[in-house]
Design a protein that fits this description.
The complex is a heterodimer of chains A (113) and B (115). Chain A contains no helices and 11 strands. With 113 residues, chain A is an all-beta fold. In chain A, the strands form 2 sheets. In chain A, strands 2, 4, 5, 6, 9, 10 and 11 form a 7-stranded mixed beta sheet that branches. Chain B has 115 residues and is mostly beta strands. The model of chain B has no long low-confidence stretch (mean pLDDT 97). The chains are: A mainly beta (113), B mainly beta (115).
Amino acid sequence: DIVMTQSPESLAVSLGERATINCKSSQTVLSISNYKNYMGWYQKKPGQPPKLLFYWASTRISGVPDRFSGSGSGTNFTLTISSLQAEDVAVYYCQQFYGYPLSFGPGTRVEIK
Amino acid sequence: QVQLQESGPRLVMPSETLSLTCTVSGASISSSYWSWIRQSPGKAPEWIGYISDSGSPYYSASLKSRVTISADTSKNQLSLTLTSVTTADTAFYYCAKDRWTFELWGPGTLVTVSS
């Protein structure tokens, strides 16, 4: 099974500042057949289901603000919020879909400083 | 547009069976894969399994001995059953469209396992 880790567990960022979340998989999620990274990112707010932000590590879902970006390859990935807004307060999860069972990272809580 | 809605008992006794239904509107369940995912409070989401467009299920190995996912095409509903539950099975349970990443989710239902 692929184990996902995230860092930091939580971070507090001032409004308008950058937030960076790291995700690491225990084995590569990069397919050599199509050169795609089987990685997604979600935003989770209380009382709501997770919201998919990115798939293929960096393909943004329609409607997701462009202050959000996804990057990385292989086993190391990053979600960046370039200018934190109040509505971005949430827990963020990475998820690999390279192999079953699908697995999620433990989450990173983003708060306003 | 496509919508999903979970339903079922909110409270289940330990050792009993948890049974949930996901009603899909706006799309035929025969047109896609559908997954069940749960999230215990304060923990990461956990993928439970999926059912294919042809009705074939696939389960997480950690739950395989206790879980069944099925589809009723006449009602356009999915179902999840989890046997021999313990307090560790207390979680929000979600149905979601697709089998890899999940853009469309139901609102979820909190199931508490307690005597």
